[in-house]
């Protein structure tokens, strides 16, 4: 049990935000989260900013940018966090650790990214820095090529999984079509996702365009408060567990189809929370590519290795299934502005647990799991959240 609660949150539109400056994006979502928690900037004890950047923007060193727009935060300790595609969750953990160390009562966590300032090939080059450059930098297709290689290896070991990947893509696009924050609000249907076409070509290995998350801009923010203080606040979502597990960076040092770091993170988090997968109302998981979600079913324990497709065939992860996965549309439809993703996933789960998720809502949601990973299951974060 973590003695902290989410007490306020906010989420920007995800997409190609041409007319929104990164500094404005950061401040707007932060102010909205403060307002949601009913707090003034002066009541915040520390600020935790997650952004991968790595070349998306010329402006680096973003921790104090927010002071320009919210001067009430000036002179507060502010730190930038980075852990590849799990950067947002790294910032969340930084905030939690400040509270657990007794240094803060309320913290502000912000994740943001402006990816579309660069052309898509350049974005691919930046993201490839999340791989082991000495061995993997030459993989064609950028990070899509890394996961295309993983998908091809999975197909060779366990058989063609094209049907399963198309089911994941169709599910997440269907879910995302009712998410007002999603980059892509369109239900493409299974047939479009399953078949190669001019609008859905192969991108890397067996992965088609509908198997790949989009290049997106966006931001999300959270206020995290001490649990005893949160009891008197308008709303609170508690942390039953918050676990981080890192694995080897090189794919050559591990089985790339096992996501062992994710397995350890899920096992530890469920143990700390004292629950099983059957107790969860929903999961928001890291579907940067559909093959990732398929392997994550196995890593979390929904299926044995190589049998993730059975989860889809039985409809277990549909919104009306036993364990809805990515009712927000996931990274696939909602978008994947790298630094914002982990924070966004916590916001989506908090909305579900407070019954404020609108058309995305899972009825009577009580417990939610969040899995955010950096690289190909290198930095693995699992949160178990509960309604209070």
TrEMBL record:
Pfam families: Thiolase_C_1, Thiolase_N
SUPFAM superfamilies: Thiolase-like
Chain ranges of the Thiolase N-terminal domain: 13-183
GO terms for MF: acetyl-CoA C-acyltransferase activity
InterPro entries xref list: Thiolase, Thiolase-like, Thiolase_C_2, Thiolase_N
Domain Thiolase C-terminal: 250-386
Stated name of the protein: Acetyl-CoA acetyltransferase
